[in-house]
Amino acid sequence: MSENKTLIAFEGADIMNGESTIIFNLNLEVHSGEFVYIVGKVGTGKTSIIRTIIAENNLSAGKGMVCGYDLNSLKSSDIPYLRRKMGVVFQDFQLLMDRNVEQNLLFVLNATGWKDKKAAAERISEVLEAVGMGTKAHKMPHQLSGGEQQRIAIARALLNDPELIVADEPTGNLDTETADGIMKVLDKINKEKGTAIIMVTHNKQIFEDYPGRVMVCKDETCLEATPETVLDTETIF
Question: Which of 34, 74, 129, 215 is the most buried (most CB within 10 A)?
Fold first, then answer.
């Protein structure tokens, strides 16, 4: 993996929330191996940026590129191919509750073109081991704790070996200790595999304990924080 490969690039981009522009003139580049936080008060556009990255929201003005796809000219038929190039982790896990862990992961592999059953089984074992859930393949989601479910969600995001993981408040529904465990998993993936991670969080403790670049959403802008800004809690939250 190229150390300086650009995975996300916004230039003068206006970010929409429904029919309204919530962030004007976003300039952001994320390269392979980087860990980037998006922080800010509720309603400042953090999740809208994530939705734009995964092509749920249209880009209304400016330029945007994600994983080699031009968001300005992206066809709806290209969106599944774009999303296969990244792993997405949500706050509410979004596991399929009517099937076990292995079946949840196999569903994704089948949907993304894996045909070889043996190779699929091996990949599922690999990603479960990577998140410390190697013995949980046959558990149903309701048999797992919140932290365990989120580890499965991260395993799911890793299945196709993405260059980029997009995480929207992945620790938001978890207690402090469990959240720290999830951050250790993401930090390990970032450092050992060079996977870029862009993550929305409300938790200042997280980006103090696991440093990375910090983008602050405020007053219809999203700008990279200086060390002084990061230390000023009132500015961010």
Answer: 215
